[in-house]
Amino acid sequence: MQLYISPSNLRSKKHPLLRLLGYAKNYRPQIWIAVTCTILNQLCDLAPSYLIGVAVDVVVEKENSLIAQIGITNIIGQLAILSLLTLLVWSLESLFEFLYDRLWRNLAQTIQHELRLDTYSHLQELELSYFEERSTGELLSIVNDDINQLERFLNFGAAEILQFLTVVLAVGGSFILIAPSVAPFAILPIPFIFWGSFVFQKQLAPRYADVREKAGFISSRLANNLSGIATIKSFTTEDYERSRVLDESDAYRRSNKKAIALSAAFYPLIRFLVVVGFIATLFFGGIAVANNRLTVGTYGFLVFIVQLLLWPFASLSQIMDEYQRAMASIRRVMGLLDTPIAIGGGDRTLPLTVVRGEVQIENIAFAYKERHKILKNLSLHIPAGANIGIVGATGSGKSTLVKLLLRFYEIQSGRIRIDGVDIRELQLRELRRCIGWVSQDVFLFHGTVAQNIAYGNLAASDEEIVHAAKLAEAHEFIVELPQGYETIVGERGQKLSGGQRQRIAIARAILKDPPILILDEATSAVDNETEAAIQKSLTKITQNRTTIAIAHRLSTIRHSDRIYVMDRGEIVEQGKHEDLLALNGIYASLWRVQSGI
Known about the structure:
This protein is of the alpha/beta class. It contains 20 helices and ten strands.
């Protein structure tokens, strides 16, 4: 089987953070403005500390102060200038904070939006078997929870990292310039802090990966239980299901507890190292003052700003914690984006106006993953415009055959052609656009009756929707609903009966007006009277189009142009209804059981 690799796989070796930043490449001007505002905000935040040092210098040195060197020797004048500078700095700090906060948060929303859209779009392109092997809750956890985790990091994490680096560079540079003899003692803890950060990061990464995995499990459990709430109630298994949710939730709690135990230990360690640096500055700086190598004002300034240099390292624990949570989430998201698309479409188009509907199935074989063959060298020719029926016992391969025609799965050998064109050469949307499929497992979306019928043609008018409903024998019950065509059907159509859902699904397929119509047990959930009415309408619906009807009820397909009987993945009988009865084989046996003869 040919494996189609999506473009995202070409980037799979990049670090997750670099791949995430790739979504921001179209917003570089906003990013640079946000970066600039963040740095300027932090510099303005640091400025008052420097101004305090200058103020101490004015009070102690008076006419010999730093400000006096620019020509203002009066103390009151010097203090007035400091006051004005302080007002200006605080105003600018507030302005830059407003700007960077707005920019970063809007960027976070934009990147989150694009990443979620890309992830969902890629998810839609994956083959049906991918969804059969995974729970809906797990996928929802990735597309929703994990991407929301990235938003939380982008909202504040980028600004925190920039502010941290700004503080370290600005204050560290000031130390080296003002007191090079004391600076080594002040920055002594920094290498140890960085080393500890990387060690903790390495230890935290697998723990947060486990947290996100457990979050997926509990999301899967909750989604599954909410979908099956009627079954839970009917079997009175509420206590049992509560215990299962309790187990999943407790596993998530214990996983978080392990991560918290490690991340919580980081802050006290950093605090201890910060104190070491502060004491070293206090002690050795004091000695420098006593030896007349530092002024009192400079010493006071150094003791004050050493905290500004070292305390940001304490916030490194929170930054690292948020970073690792975000990376655990992004790895799950990128893992989904890296999933190869196993069924890739061709490049040929198939305009609806020229499709005749001839179907040729030639020696195809198929088996579901790790299972025995469902179809074995099956061949079938359906002329354009023909109305055929397919019958057989459960598991004989009837529904699998039509799913292969839609390329929900890929055949292992042989080929399927429409109008002489191999379906693997066709664009998937072109192929599926010319086929209308009414499944035995009807799915209706949460919305109105009209919206669900219009799913067959989103541009359909109200008149066309009503006409399709009448052909499907659905109009009569629809107008009796509380709001008629505007009645909300509920999730999966739970407010309607099985027969009502099936008729809406038929109306949806009719509105699509496809050249090829597949009815997979399309009347299995309707009563005999409704089935007779639908059969009457089908004579109109199936005109001038190829129709493949799969049925357990033989009455549904008895008037087909040709009927095929399947058994264990092979066609064992074929012919018209009367011909098959005359064979006195499987079909005749089924007919006798159903007709009571």
